[in-house]
Amino acid sequence: xxxxxxxxxxxxxxxxxxxxxxxxxVVDIGGTxxxxxxxxxxxxxxxxxxxxxxxxxxxxxxxTPESPTVPGLMGKAPINSPTFTGTPNAPTPAVDDDxxxxxxxxxxxxxxxxxAPINSPNFTGVPTAPTPPxxxxxxxxxxxxFVQGEVSDRAPNDxxxxxxxxxxxxxxxEDDSTRIATTAFVHDAITDAMAGYGGEPDPGGPAIxxxxxxxxxxxxxxxxxxxGTVENxxxxxxxxxxxxxxxxxxxxxxxxxxxxxxxxxxxIIGGGNPGGTSGGSGGTQVSQYINGLTIQISDDAxxxxxxxxxxxxxxxxxxxxxxxxxxxxxxxxxxxxxPLATYIAISELHIQGYNQNSNAGTTLPSIISLPFTASQSSxxxxxxxxxxxxxxxxxxxxxxxxxxTTASDQWIMAxxxxxxxxxxxxxxxxxxxxNLSGGFGGVAAYLTGKIIQVSTxxxxxxxxxxxxxxxxxxxxxDWYSVGAWCRYVRIYSKTSYxxxxxxxxxxx
Length: 508
Prior knowledge:
Blueprint: E1 22-29, E2 32-39, H1 40-43, E3 62-63, E4 68-69, H2 105-112, H3 144-151, H4 183-194, E5 212-213, E6 217-220, E7 224-226, E8 242-245, E9 252-271, H5 286-290, E10 294-298, E11 304-309, E12 321-338, E13 343-346, E14 348-354, E15 368-369, E16 373-376, H6 390-394, E17 402-403, E18 410-415, E19 424-432, E20 435-436, E21 441-442, E22 451-455, E23 462-466, E24 478-486, E25 488-493, E26 499-500, E27 502-507
Parallel strand pairs: 11-24
Antiparallel strand pairs: 1-2, 3-4, 5-14, 6-9, 7-8, 8-13, 9-12, 9-14, 10-11, 10-12, 15-27, 16-18, 17-26, 18-25, 19-24, 19-27, 20-21, 22-23, 22-25
Protein backbone atom coordinates (compact mmCIF):
# COMPACT_ATOMS: atom_id res chain seq x y z
CA UNK A 1 0.00 0.00 0.00
CA UNK A 2 1.63 3.16 -1.05
CA UNK A 3 2.29 5.98 1.43
CA UNK A 4 -0.38 8.59 1.48
CA UNK A 5 -0.78 11.87 3.30
CA UNK A 6 -3.70 12.21 5.65
CA UNK A 7 -4.94 15.09 3.57
CA UNK A 8 -5.19 12.70 0.57
CA UNK A 9 -7.51 10.32 2.38
CA UNK A 10 -11.18 10.55 1.58
CA UNK A 11 -13.19 12.63 3.97
CA UNK A 12 -9.96 13.82 5.65
CA UNK A 13 -11.59 16.91 6.86
CA UNK A 14 -13.79 14.89 9.10
CA UNK A 15 -10.91 13.14 10.78
CA UNK A 16 -10.03 14.61 14.22
CA UNK A 17 -6.33 13.95 14.89
CA UNK A 18 -4.51 15.37 17.90
CA UNK A 19 -0.98 14.95 19.27
CA UNK A 20 -2.25 12.17 21.50
CA UNK A 21 -4.00 10.25 18.64
CA UNK A 22 -2.68 6.69 18.14
CA UNK A 23 -1.92 5.63 14.62
CA UNK A 24 -0.65 2.29 13.23
CA UNK A 25 2.94 1.98 12.06
CA VAL A 26 4.14 -0.57 9.44
CA VAL A 27 7.87 -0.81 8.86
CA ASP A 28 9.51 -2.94 6.12
CA ILE A 29 12.74 -4.31 7.49
CA GLY A 30 14.48 -6.50 4.95
CA GLY A 31 11.21 -7.59 3.37
CA THR A 32 9.62 -8.28 6.66
CA UNK A 33 6.78 -6.02 7.63
CA UNK A 34 6.77 -5.05 11.23
CA UNK A 35 3.67 -3.41 12.57
CA UNK A 36 3.30 -1.18 15.62
CA UNK A 37 1.54 1.94 16.77
CA UNK A 38 2.50 5.35 18.20
CA UNK A 39 0.94 8.67 19.07
CA UNK A 40 1.18 11.56 16.67
CA UNK A 41 3.38 13.41 19.25
CA UNK A 42 5.90 10.57 19.13
CA UNK A 43 5.93 10.51 15.31
CA UNK A 44 6.47 14.28 14.83
CA UNK A 45 10.13 15.30 14.09
CA UNK A 46 11.67 17.75 16.62
CA UNK A 47 13.44 20.78 15.20
CA UNK A 48 17.17 21.19 15.95
CA UNK A 49 19.97 23.47 14.89
CA UNK A 50 20.62 21.22 11.84
CA UNK A 51 17.18 20.12 10.66
CA UNK A 52 13.68 21.28 10.38
CA UNK A 53 11.04 19.98 12.65
CA UNK A 54 8.10 20.97 14.69
CA UNK A 55 8.42 24.05 16.99
CA UNK A 56 5.87 25.81 19.15
CA UNK A 57 5.93 29.60 18.70
CA UNK A 58 4.94 30.62 22.22
CA UNK A 59 6.47 32.65 25.06
CA UNK A 60 9.60 34.52 23.91
CA UNK A 61 9.48 32.90 20.39
CA UNK A 62 8.15 34.60 17.32
CA UNK A 63 8.55 34.50 13.55
CA THR A 64 7.82 31.28 11.60
CA PRO A 65 8.76 27.64 12.18
CA GLU A 66 11.26 28.01 9.37
CA SER A 67 12.68 31.29 10.78
CA PRO A 68 11.83 31.56 14.46
CA THR A 69 12.94 34.72 16.40
CA VAL A 70 13.18 35.84 20.05
CA PRO A 71 11.88 39.41 20.05
CA GLY A 72 12.67 39.86 23.80
CA LEU A 73 16.45 39.43 23.24
CA MET A 74 16.60 42.57 21.13
CA GLY A 75 16.86 44.69 24.40
CA LYS A 76 19.31 42.37 26.18
CA ALA A 77 23.14 42.83 26.60
CA PRO A 78 25.50 40.02 25.69
CA ILE A 79 27.25 38.07 28.43
CA ASN A 80 30.69 38.78 26.89
CA SER A 81 31.65 42.44 27.18
CA PRO A 82 28.12 43.79 27.62
CA THR A 83 27.45 47.52 27.18
CA PHE A 84 24.66 48.55 29.55
CA THR A 85 22.43 51.59 29.10
CA GLY A 86 19.88 53.29 31.22
CA THR A 87 20.26 52.62 34.96
CA PRO A 88 21.56 49.06 35.35
CA ASN A 89 21.48 47.51 38.83
CA ALA A 90 23.24 44.56 40.45
CA PRO A 91 23.45 42.98 43.92
CA THR A 92 25.83 44.89 46.25
CA PRO A 93 28.75 42.70 47.46
CA ALA A 94 29.95 42.83 51.07
CA VAL A 95 32.49 45.63 51.82
CA ASP A 96 35.30 43.11 52.36
CA ASP A 97 34.57 41.32 49.00
CA ASP A 98 37.71 41.08 46.82
CA UNK A 99 36.55 39.12 43.71
CA UNK A 100 35.37 39.62 40.08
CA UNK A 101 31.79 40.33 41.12
CA UNK A 102 30.17 43.52 39.88
CA UNK A 103 30.88 46.45 42.26
CA UNK A 104 27.81 48.64 42.67
CA UNK A 105 27.95 52.32 43.63
CA UNK A 106 26.77 51.30 47.11
CA UNK A 107 29.76 48.93 47.38
CA UNK A 108 32.21 51.65 46.28
CA UNK A 109 30.79 54.18 48.75
CA UNK A 110 30.99 51.63 51.56
CA UNK A 111 34.64 50.96 50.69
CA UNK A 112 35.48 54.68 50.31
CA UNK A 113 34.02 55.39 53.74
CA UNK A 114 37.04 53.47 55.09
CA UNK A 115 39.51 55.95 53.48
CA ALA A 116 40.38 59.62 54.14
CA PRO A 117 39.86 62.18 51.37
CA ILE A 118 42.89 63.65 49.57
CA ASN A 119 41.77 67.17 50.45
CA SER A 120 42.14 67.84 54.22
CA PRO A 121 42.07 64.21 55.36
CA ASN A 122 41.19 63.53 59.01
CA PHE A 123 43.07 60.36 59.97
CA THR A 124 42.17 58.19 62.96
CA GLY A 125 43.84 55.23 64.60
CA VAL A 126 47.60 54.96 63.96
CA PRO A 127 48.26 56.23 60.40
CA THR A 128 51.73 55.64 58.94
CA ALA A 129 53.68 57.05 56.01
CA PRO A 130 57.13 56.67 54.45
CA THR A 131 59.85 58.56 56.40
CA PRO A 132 61.54 61.27 54.28
CA PRO A 133 65.36 61.54 54.30
CA UNK A 134 66.92 63.69 57.04
CA UNK A 135 67.72 66.60 54.71
CA UNK A 136 64.21 66.75 53.18
CA UNK A 137 62.66 70.21 53.11
CA UNK A 138 59.44 69.74 51.14
CA UNK A 139 55.66 69.26 51.59
CA UNK A 140 56.03 65.51 52.13
CA UNK A 141 54.48 64.03 55.28
CA UNK A 142 56.89 64.25 58.25
CA UNK A 143 56.63 61.03 60.27
CA UNK A 144 57.47 60.87 63.96
CA UNK A 145 60.74 59.16 62.98
CA PHE A 146 61.64 62.10 60.73
CA VAL A 147 60.81 64.65 63.44
CA GLN A 148 62.78 62.81 66.13
CA GLY A 149 65.76 62.72 63.82
CA GLU A 150 65.49 66.44 63.21
CA VAL A 151 65.17 67.44 66.90
CA SER A 152 67.71 64.97 68.30
CA ASP A 153 70.48 67.59 68.00
CA ARG A 154 68.34 70.47 69.23
CA ALA A 155 67.93 71.75 72.76
CA PRO A 156 64.55 71.45 74.52
CA ASN A 157 62.59 74.55 75.49
CA ASP A 158 62.65 73.50 79.15
CA UNK A 159 66.11 73.85 80.75
CA UNK A 160 68.17 73.48 77.55
CA UNK A 161 71.86 72.57 77.78
CA UNK A 162 73.61 74.31 74.89
CA UNK A 163 76.97 73.27 73.47
CA UNK A 164 79.36 74.62 70.88
CA UNK A 165 79.06 78.38 70.32
CA UNK A 166 75.38 79.31 70.71
CA UNK A 167 74.31 82.72 69.44
CA UNK A 168 71.30 84.96 69.97
CA UNK A 169 70.14 88.43 69.07
CA UNK A 170 71.52 91.12 71.38
CA UNK A 171 68.83 92.97 73.37
CA UNK A 172 69.11 96.75 73.79
CA UNK A 173 71.19 97.81 76.77
CA GLU A 174 68.10 99.06 78.64
CA ASP A 175 66.33 95.68 78.36
CA ASP A 176 65.27 94.26 81.74
CA SER A 177 63.43 91.04 80.90
CA THR A 178 63.90 87.27 80.65
CA ARG A 179 65.44 87.51 77.16
CA ILE A 180 68.83 85.88 76.61
CA ALA A 181 71.69 88.27 77.38
CA THR A 182 74.52 87.86 74.87
CA THR A 183 78.13 88.70 75.72
CA ALA A 184 77.68 91.86 73.65
CA PHE A 185 74.72 92.86 75.83
CA VAL A 186 76.70 92.23 79.03
CA HIS A 187 79.67 94.25 77.80
CA ASP A 188 77.42 97.10 76.72
CA ALA A 189 75.58 97.03 80.05
CA ILE A 190 78.83 97.03 82.02
CA THR A 191 80.22 99.89 79.95
CA ASP A 192 77.01 101.82 80.41
CA ALA A 193 76.89 101.17 84.15
CA MET A 194 80.54 101.88 84.84
CA ALA A 195 80.98 104.83 82.48
CA GLY A 196 84.62 103.84 81.92
CA TYR A 197 85.70 100.72 83.80
CA GLY A 198 89.05 100.89 85.59
CA GLY A 199 89.36 104.53 86.67
CA GLU A 200 86.30 106.57 85.79
CA PRO A 201 83.64 107.08 88.46
CA ASP A 202 80.27 105.44 88.92
CA PRO A 203 77.52 107.44 87.14
CA GLY A 204 76.48 110.23 89.46
CA GLY A 205 79.82 110.07 91.30
CA PRO A 206 82.54 112.73 91.35
CA ALA A 207 83.77 114.08 88.03
CA ILE A 208 87.21 112.95 86.92
CA UNK A 209 89.91 115.61 86.34
CA UNK A 210 92.19 115.55 83.35
CA UNK A 211 95.04 113.01 83.27
CA UNK A 212 98.41 114.80 83.33
CA UNK A 213 102.07 114.05 84.05
CA UNK A 214 102.28 114.39 87.83
CA UNK A 215 105.20 116.22 89.46
CA UNK A 216 107.12 114.25 92.06
CA UNK A 217 110.15 114.19 94.31
CA UNK A 218 112.54 111.34 93.44
CA UNK A 219 114.58 109.24 95.84
CA UNK A 220 116.43 105.94 95.64
CA UNK A 221 117.88 103.38 98.01
CA UNK A 222 121.04 104.41 99.85
CA UNK A 223 123.56 102.41 97.78
CA UNK A 224 123.51 104.83 94.87
CA UNK A 225 125.49 104.07 91.71
CA UNK A 226 124.01 106.85 89.54
CA UNK A 227 121.92 109.50 91.26
CA GLY A 228 118.67 110.14 89.50
CA THR A 229 116.83 113.44 89.29
CA VAL A 230 113.38 114.34 88.03
CA GLU A 231 115.10 116.24 85.22
CA ASN A 232 117.14 113.32 83.88
CA UNK A 233 114.26 110.89 84.46
CA UNK A 234 111.98 112.93 82.19
CA UNK A 235 114.41 114.03 79.43
CA UNK A 236 113.72 111.01 77.15
CA UNK A 237 117.44 110.23 76.94
CA UNK A 238 118.67 106.64 77.02
CA UNK A 239 122.02 107.40 78.72
CA UNK A 240 120.67 109.30 81.74
CA UNK A 241 118.68 108.04 84.68
CA UNK A 242 119.32 106.27 87.98
CA UNK A 243 121.12 103.12 89.16
CA UNK A 244 121.21 101.60 92.66
CA UNK A 245 122.42 98.35 94.15
CA UNK A 246 121.22 96.54 97.22
CA UNK A 247 123.82 95.46 99.73
CA UNK A 248 123.56 92.20 101.66
CA UNK A 249 120.20 91.85 103.44
CA UNK A 250 118.96 95.15 101.99
CA UNK A 251 116.61 96.12 99.20
CA UNK A 252 116.86 98.49 96.25
CA UNK A 253 114.15 100.83 95.03
CA UNK A 254 113.30 103.97 93.10
CA UNK A 255 110.60 106.06 94.81
CA UNK A 256 108.42 109.01 93.75
CA UNK A 257 106.61 111.18 96.31
CA UNK A 258 103.64 112.90 94.64
CA UNK A 259 103.24 115.29 97.56
CA UNK A 260 99.47 114.76 97.89
CA UNK A 261 97.08 111.88 97.69
CA UNK A 262 96.64 111.24 93.95
CA UNK A 263 95.08 108.96 91.41
CA UNK A 264 97.89 107.09 89.62
CA UNK A 265 96.70 105.92 86.23
CA UNK A 266 99.88 104.85 84.41
CA UNK A 267 103.59 104.57 85.21
CA ILE A 268 105.92 104.99 82.20
CA ILE A 269 109.37 103.43 82.42
CA GLY A 270 112.25 103.97 80.00
CA GLY A 271 114.91 101.49 78.94
CA GLY A 272 118.46 102.49 78.03
CA ASN A 273 122.03 102.70 79.43
CA PRO A 274 122.29 105.18 82.34
CA GLY A 275 125.94 106.25 82.61
CA GLY A 276 126.78 104.91 79.15
CA THR A 277 127.21 106.61 75.78
CA SER A 278 124.40 107.66 73.49
CA GLY A 279 125.43 104.80 71.23
CA GLY A 280 124.75 102.31 73.99
CA SER A 281 128.25 101.29 75.11
CA GLY A 282 129.15 101.21 78.80
CA GLY A 283 126.71 102.14 81.56
CA THR A 284 124.09 99.79 82.98
CA GLN A 285 121.56 98.02 80.78
CA VAL A 286 118.10 98.87 82.15
CA SER A 287 116.32 95.81 80.69
CA GLN A 288 118.67 93.50 82.55
CA TYR A 289 117.74 94.94 85.94
CA ILE A 290 114.14 96.21 85.64
CA ASN A 291 112.10 93.39 84.07
CA GLY A 292 110.37 91.19 86.66
CA LEU A 293 110.32 93.89 89.35
CA THR A 294 107.10 95.14 90.99
CA ILE A 295 105.50 98.60 91.02
CA GLN A 296 104.12 99.33 94.51
CA ILE A 297 101.77 102.02 95.88
CA SER A 298 101.55 103.47 99.40
CA ASP A 299 99.63 106.13 101.28
CA ASP A 300 102.33 106.70 103.92
CA ALA A 301 105.60 105.22 102.53
CA UNK A 302 105.37 102.56 105.26
CA UNK A 303 102.68 100.12 104.15
CA UNK A 304 103.10 99.16 100.50
CA UNK A 305 100.73 97.33 98.21
CA UNK A 306 101.72 95.51 95.04
CA UNK A 307 100.32 96.86 91.79
CA UNK A 308 101.97 95.76 88.53
CA UNK A 309 104.89 93.55 87.50
CA UNK A 310 107.25 95.13 84.97
CA UNK A 311 107.93 93.10 81.84
CA UNK A 312 108.90 93.69 78.23
CA UNK A 313 111.22 96.69 78.72
CA UNK A 314 113.98 96.96 76.11
CA UNK A 315 116.92 99.39 75.91
CA UNK A 316 116.83 102.39 73.63
CA UNK A 317 119.84 103.86 71.84
CA UNK A 318 120.05 107.62 72.03
CA UNK A 319 116.35 108.18 72.74
CA UNK A 320 114.94 106.12 75.59
CA UNK A 321 112.38 103.41 74.82
CA UNK A 322 109.23 104.13 76.84
CA UNK A 323 106.87 101.45 78.23
CA UNK A 324 103.57 102.14 80.03
CA UNK A 325 102.22 100.05 82.93
CA UNK A 326 98.66 100.49 84.16
CA UNK A 327 98.23 101.11 87.89
CA UNK A 328 94.76 102.60 88.39
CA UNK A 329 95.11 103.18 92.12
CA UNK A 330 95.08 105.96 94.68
CA UNK A 331 98.11 106.80 96.80
CA UNK A 332 100.82 109.34 97.48
CA UNK A 333 103.94 107.25 96.98
CA UNK A 334 104.98 104.96 94.15
CA UNK A 335 108.11 102.86 93.92
CA UNK A 336 109.87 100.22 91.85
CA UNK A 337 111.01 97.52 94.24
CA UNK A 338 113.96 95.12 94.05
CA PRO A 339 114.03 92.70 97.04
CA LEU A 340 117.39 91.17 96.12
CA ALA A 341 120.94 92.43 96.70
CA THR A 342 121.52 93.37 93.05
CA TYR A 343 121.30 96.29 90.65
CA ILE A 344 118.20 98.27 89.76
CA ALA A 345 118.31 100.69 86.83
CA ILE A 346 116.00 103.06 84.96
CA SER A 347 116.39 105.81 82.33
CA GLU A 348 112.91 107.40 82.46
CA LEU A 349 110.07 107.62 85.02
CA HIS A 350 106.80 109.40 84.13
CA ILE A 351 103.71 109.20 86.34
CA GLN A 352 100.34 110.04 84.80
CA GLY A 353 97.22 110.76 86.84
CA TYR A 354 95.63 113.65 88.69
CA ASN A 355 95.59 115.40 92.08
CA GLN A 356 94.47 118.69 93.60
CA ASN A 357 97.60 120.53 92.43
CA SER A 358 97.26 119.54 88.78
CA ASN A 359 93.47 120.15 88.76
CA ALA A 360 92.65 123.29 90.67
CA GLY A 361 89.23 123.33 92.31
CA THR A 362 88.74 119.54 92.06
CA THR A 363 87.50 117.79 95.17
CA LEU A 364 88.90 114.27 95.33
CA PRO A 365 86.88 111.55 97.08
CA SER A 366 88.10 110.21 100.39
CA ILE A 367 89.49 106.65 100.45
CA ILE A 368 87.83 104.74 103.29
CA SER A 369 87.44 101.15 104.46
CA LEU A 370 84.34 99.94 102.67
CA PRO A 371 81.76 97.78 104.44
CA PHE A 372 80.74 94.58 102.69
CA THR A 373 78.83 91.32 102.97
CA ALA A 374 81.16 88.31 103.00
CA SER A 375 80.56 84.88 101.49
CA GLN A 376 82.62 81.89 100.42
CA SER A 377 82.30 78.89 98.10
CA SER A 378 82.54 76.34 100.95
CA UNK A 379 83.39 76.21 104.66
CA UNK A 380 86.15 73.99 106.00
CA UNK A 381 84.58 71.43 108.39
CA UNK A 382 81.71 73.87 109.02
CA UNK A 383 83.94 75.69 111.55
CA UNK A 384 82.82 79.11 112.78
CA UNK A 385 86.46 80.24 112.73
CA UNK A 386 86.61 79.34 109.02
CA UNK A 387 83.38 81.17 108.17
CA UNK A 388 83.95 84.35 106.17
CA UNK A 389 82.06 87.29 107.66
CA UNK A 390 82.73 91.00 107.84
CA UNK A 391 83.53 90.61 111.53
CA UNK A 392 85.88 87.62 111.16
CA UNK A 393 87.74 89.25 108.27
CA UNK A 394 88.18 92.69 109.88
CA UNK A 395 88.71 91.86 113.59
CA UNK A 396 92.52 91.91 113.37
CA UNK A 397 92.79 88.33 114.69
CA UNK A 398 95.04 85.78 112.98
CA UNK A 399 92.85 82.86 114.13
CA UNK A 400 89.55 83.77 112.43
CA UNK A 401 88.67 84.56 108.85
CA UNK A 402 87.61 82.29 106.01
CA UNK A 403 88.74 78.78 105.01
CA UNK A 404 87.35 76.54 102.26
CA THR A 405 87.45 72.85 101.37
CA THR A 406 89.87 71.41 98.81
CA ALA A 407 87.43 71.31 95.88
CA SER A 408 88.18 73.26 92.69
CA ASP A 409 86.97 76.84 92.09
CA GLN A 410 87.11 78.09 95.67
CA TRP A 411 86.62 81.75 96.60
CA ILE A 412 86.16 84.18 99.48
CA MET A 413 84.19 87.23 98.35
CA ALA A 414 83.10 90.70 99.47
CA UNK A 415 79.86 92.17 98.07
CA UNK A 416 80.16 95.96 98.36
CA UNK A 417 76.53 96.86 97.63
CA UNK A 418 75.24 99.02 100.49
CA UNK A 419 71.61 99.35 99.38
CA UNK A 420 72.35 102.65 97.68
CA UNK A 421 75.50 102.70 95.54
CA UNK A 422 75.78 99.62 93.29
CA UNK A 423 79.36 100.07 92.07
CA UNK A 424 82.24 101.20 94.26
CA UNK A 425 85.74 102.24 93.36
CA UNK A 426 88.10 99.72 95.00
CA UNK A 427 91.54 101.23 95.42
CA UNK A 428 93.16 98.32 97.26
CA UNK A 429 92.52 95.30 99.45
CA UNK A 430 94.46 93.73 102.28
CA UNK A 431 94.73 90.03 103.18
CA UNK A 432 96.71 88.24 105.87
CA UNK A 433 98.04 84.76 106.76
CA UNK A 434 97.87 83.15 110.23
CA ASN A 435 96.50 79.97 111.80
CA LEU A 436 92.75 79.48 111.58
CA SER A 437 91.10 77.76 114.51
CA GLY A 438 88.68 74.89 113.93
CA GLY A 439 91.29 72.49 112.59
CA PHE A 440 92.39 74.39 109.49
CA GLY A 441 95.81 75.48 110.80
CA GLY A 442 98.33 77.44 108.71
CA VAL A 443 96.92 79.78 106.07
CA ALA A 444 100.02 80.89 104.11
CA ALA A 445 100.25 77.78 101.92
CA TYR A 446 96.62 78.28 100.84
CA LEU A 447 96.90 82.02 100.21
CA THR A 448 100.21 82.30 98.35
CA GLY A 449 99.80 82.21 94.56
CA LYS A 450 96.06 82.85 94.55
CA ILE A 451 94.53 85.66 92.49
CA ILE A 452 92.46 88.76 93.23
CA GLN A 453 89.45 89.35 90.98
CA VAL A 454 86.69 91.96 90.58
CA SER A 455 83.24 91.81 88.98
CA THR A 456 80.21 94.00 88.42
CA UNK A 457 77.71 91.13 88.14
CA UNK A 458 79.20 88.12 89.99
CA UNK A 459 79.45 86.34 86.64
CA UNK A 460 82.23 87.88 84.56
CA UNK A 461 85.43 88.25 86.58
CA UNK A 462 88.54 90.30 85.86
CA UNK A 463 91.87 89.34 87.44
CA UNK A 464 93.61 92.44 88.83
CA UNK A 465 96.46 91.09 90.95
CA UNK A 466 98.29 88.03 92.29
CA UNK A 467 98.93 87.16 95.93
CA UNK A 468 102.63 86.99 96.76
CA UNK A 469 104.47 84.79 99.25
CA UNK A 470 102.83 84.75 102.68
CA UNK A 471 104.36 83.72 106.04
CA UNK A 472 102.15 82.50 108.92
CA UNK A 473 104.69 83.55 111.57
CA UNK A 474 104.28 87.18 110.52
CA UNK A 475 100.50 87.62 110.01
CA UNK A 476 100.38 91.31 109.05
CA UNK A 477 98.08 92.93 106.52
CA ASP A 478 99.44 92.58 103.01
CA TRP A 479 98.05 95.25 100.68
CA TYR A 480 97.34 94.78 96.97
CA SER A 481 96.36 97.43 94.44
CA VAL A 482 93.05 96.96 92.63
CA GLY A 483 92.12 100.26 90.98
CA ALA A 484 88.76 99.29 89.49
CA TRP A 485 85.05 100.03 89.67
CA CYS A 486 83.13 96.95 90.77
CA ARG A 487 80.52 95.53 93.12
CA TYR A 488 82.31 92.29 94.00
CA VAL A 489 85.92 91.59 94.91
CA ARG A 490 87.24 88.15 95.76
CA ILE A 491 90.27 85.97 96.40
CA TYR A 492 90.12 82.95 94.08
CA SER A 493 91.70 79.47 93.99
CA LYS A 494 91.31 77.33 90.91
CA THR A 495 92.28 73.93 92.31
CA SER A 496 92.66 73.69 96.08
CA TYR A 497 92.06 75.03 99.59
CA UNK A 498 91.79 78.79 100.08
CA UNK A 499 92.13 80.72 103.34
CA UNK A 500 92.78 84.19 104.74
CA UNK A 501 92.52 85.70 108.21
CA UNK A 502 91.76 89.17 106.84
CA UNK A 503 90.03 90.94 103.97
CA UNK A 504 89.97 94.73 104.14
CA UNK A 505 88.66 96.74 101.18
CA UNK A 506 89.54 100.42 100.67
CA UNK A 507 87.99 102.77 98.15
CA UNK A 508 85.02 105.11 97.81
